[in-house]
Amino acid sequence: MPNSVKTQKKTQKKKSKTSAPKPRSMQGCGIVVDAFEQEGVEVAFGYPGGAIIDVFDKINQSDKFDFVLTRHEQGALHMGEGYARTTGKVGVCVVTSGPGATNTVTGLADAMMDSTPLVVVSGQVPSSLIGNDAFQEADVVGITRSVTKHNYLVQSVEELPQLLKNAFHIARTGRPGPVLIDIPKDIQKATLEDYVYPAEPDLPGYHVQVDADKENIKKAWELIKSSEKPLIYAGGGILNADASDELYELATRCNIPVTTTLMGLGCFPEDHPLALLMLGMHGTVYANMAVQNCDCLIAAGSRFDDRVTGKISEFAPNAKIIHMDIDPSSISKNVEVDVDLVGDAKIILKDILKLAKKCDNSDWVKDVQLWKKENPLRYNGDDDSDLIRPQLVVETINELSDDDAIISTEVGQHQMWAAQYYTFTKPRAWLTSGGLGTMGFGLPAAIGAQKAFPKRQVITIAGDASLQMNIQEIATAAYNNLPVKVVVLNNGWLGMVRQWQDMFYDKNYSTTLTSKPQPGCNISETNPADWRNSEYLPNYEKLAEAYNCWGRRVTKKDDLKDAMIECFQSEGFAILEVWVAREENVFPMVPAGASLSQMLEGMA
Amino acid sequence: MKEDTMRRHIFYVLVENRSGVLARVAGLFSARGFNIDSLAVAQTEDSKVSRMTIVVPGDDKILNQVRKQLGKLIDVHEVQDFSMEARDIVDRELCLCKIQANAAQRSEIIEIANIFRARISDICNASIMIEATGSEGKIAALLKMLEPYGVLEVARGGHVAMARGKVK
């Protein structure tokens, strides 16, 4: 949610009309739970332990929010992210000291990289023991300093209410991010006599620029107007700012093609003729051609990540660049820009739309659409073998899933195929770990989203290697009756690493095989009879059974569709394991460090 | 990085006077691969606020990023930076140095110190301690003059700086 000065003023007015809340006597642990209630928290995720047990003692006394016990703290963080990214609200997690808190580090880093609002409350050993190497002690603010937007070690119960207020404000405003509050056990137990939850944050050093400079808005529009080959490159910032409608209006009014980053998928409907799908390393040929040929690149809530730009000196060589970003430090960090628009994307786009008139650009759009027609995403799909191509699995999910389905992924080849072959049409319905590339993100993120939207279909597209990384969260889904559907694209490898070994390391498949071949067998794709005798670990059908869930293993093309229909129609949590063609690689591909003009096409 | 585009800037940064803030600022520099030439921190006229004076070498791109990344830290209230060559700032360093000196050399050394308006802080049979404040150039010139006698120990306080004239 953007930090809108206007809404702040409104709430201030409201507050002043109603009588000020009366001070109450409350313990630190009660203050934490009260703060959650005051902030409108609907659900929190986490895991108890000795140093946070006082807070848990109050948690089950609140009827304002649910608490989901996860099976690992990393799972809790990703659930918080899944909840936050689909709802636009702050994800909340509660964990204990020491290992509980250190287990959150990957989740914090993931949320930091993908600008996801989280508030994480961790217990800490009593103040008197800090620094003594006490049982389950870790320097959590030290460890998490560089992977949080901000963190606090609470030093007294008196400052606790204000720090909680600040934490929620910092997490959700500006460029959203994770905030951790570490609370020593003695402060959880201490009583504050005159507790009132503060109405406003107290952050003299924190300023969020919401409105971009008006002169620059004018310059941006002049540049768009005078360009003949404009292109919008939209990212996750559009989703965070809930600015999809404004982006759609600008693109259609001015006839500008739109390519999106991995994080931005769904911010512009991919079934629209102006949609060029994803750009970058595994982007479409036509999106990357459009980048290399455009004369004006409008970066909207995107940050010129190296997986997007390829070789930076040859990125969009003919283009003037307009960059809108809420984070001033993103401007000219990787690419020098011509017009910077620091502020909230929704407000910036609205300001541009006030000036924007219809544009022609028809020659350019015709060119782009010709590229689109000539270079579609393609794969070896017409072979008459019974092999299941992984791309076909994603296409089948696309065909069979609900219109408002939420799709999450793990990290690797399947993630790229999901990004390429699923048609994203709605904002906040796509969950993937973009910046950090966290294997193990997809399943818990889906569970968090399902908790937020119990009635919507939530599907995880997983690789078998990533799914293993937080596999324990199946128990969380099953226990809480959260009917996430997991489709595992199992090729018996750590697929993406294997692809790099295949293409750039002379087929030296060092430690990337996860399926166990029978002695003397040839496991290459051309010998399906042999590799189908390999032992794939685990057997997900049996694993599902262990959790009393629906599970099925499919190895032949003819069985895929029926099994998927059954999976999607099953009642609770379900796993469909699909044995896909073993040696399929993700194409197109721009090798790391190469220019976007040097795309490799597998099937061309 | 091309040497000819490298410059040095003095950042002065007002920060919340709270535990962990120095680690946060220092961590920013190490995490992003920026260098620090010198760093001085102390409380200001307001006990809730500390002032850090940080000398940073870099080209325009790096200095810009340092400015923006410092500004992004929630404990940072204000960032200002000046080129080291700027004339509208007062920039000083404190230097303590212990010089080898027997009785015969003492008066020569004291004379040198006087020229640099430095003070004698301590004296014993074999050495003499000098306390000097001034610009980086002045301190360097003093140390160069004292070098022939034998510099036993040097402690420098890091730059502290303030803009001339107007108060915000």
Put the structure in a nutshell:
Chain A contains 25 helices and 22 strands. Chain A has 604 residues and is an alpha/beta fold.
Percentage of residues in strands of chain A:
15-25%
Largest sheet of chain B: 5 strands, antiparallel
| Class by alpha and beta content of chain A | alpha/beta
In total, the number of domains of chain A comes to 3
Q: Over the alpha carbons, how many angstroms does the gyration radius of chain A reach?
A: 25 Å
Strand content range of chain B: 35-45%
- Approximately how much helix is present in the residues of chain B? 25-40%
Q: Helices and strands in order, then pairings?
A:
The complex is a heterodimer of chains A (604) and B (168).
Chain A: H1 5-17, E1 24-27, H2 28-38, E2 43-46, H3 53-59, E3 66-69, H4 73-87, E4 91-95, H5 99-102, H6 105-113, E5 118-124, H7 140-144, E6 150-153, H8 160-172, E7 178-184, H9 185-189, E8 191-195, H10 214-226, E9 230-234, H11 236-240, H12 244-253, E10 258-260, E11 275-278, H13 285-293, E12 296-300, H14 306-309, E13 320-325, E14 339-342, H15 345-355, H16 362-374, H17 390-400, E15 406-409, H18 413-421, E16 430-431, H19 442-452, E17 458-463, H20 464-469, H21 474-479, E18 485-490, H22 495-504, E19 515-516, H23 528-531, E20 535-536, H24 540-546, E21 550-554, H25 557-569, E22 574-579
Parallel strand pairs in A: 2-3, 2-4, 4-5, 5-7, 6-7, 9-10, 9-12, 10-11, 12-13, 13-14, 15-16, 15-17, 17-18, 18-22, 21-22
Antiparallel strand pairs in A: 1-8, 19-20
Chain B: E1 7-16, H1 21-32, E2 38-43, E3 49-58, H2 60-72, E4 76-83, E5 89-100, H3 103-115, E6 119-123, E7 127-134, H4 136-146, E8 151-156, E9 160-163
Antiparallel strand pairs in B: 1-3, 1-4, 2-3, 5-7, 5-8, 5-9, 6-7
